[in-house]
Design a protein that fits this description.
The protein is of the alpha+beta class and 97 residues long. It is built from three helices and six strands; from the N terminus they run H-E-H-E-H-E-E-E-E. The strands form two sheets. The chain has a four-stranded antiparallel sheet. A two-stranded antiparallel sheet has the order 4-5. Strand 4 and strand 5 form a beta hairpin.
């Protein structure tokens, strides 16, 4: 179990698709720590933003191999969490985006 709430939630993902999901289905997408599990993510969102979380879906994204000059490197792996909020709940930080 991870301790620090701010280490679990990294940043919100803001794209056209995430804006549509927020407006239509009340789902918010965050980039989270790759070691965090669903229960850690749920607790962190509920405590940080004071909302009720109904469901948490996660997806792991492997970093791509990219070329840097002559050599090759790898981008870091990421994890996204799709948070379904209770109807009527909103995260004020993301409103108006």
């Amino acid at each position: 179990m991870m301790k620090d709430l701010y280490a679990i939630i990294r940043k919100p993902v803001i794209t056209e698709r995430t804006t549509y999901l927020k407006e239509k289905y009340n789902k918010i997408i965050f980039e989270v720590d790759v070691r965090a599990n669903k229960s850690d993510i749920k607790k962190a969102i509920e405590r940080l933003f004071n909302v009720a979380v109904i469901k948490v879906n996660t997806t792991n994204i492997n970093g791509k191999v990219k070329r840097f000059g002559r050599g090759f490197g790898k981008r870091s792996d990421r994890k996204k969490a799709i948070i379904t909020l209770k109807k009527g709940d909103k995260i004020g930080l993301l409103e108006g985006i």
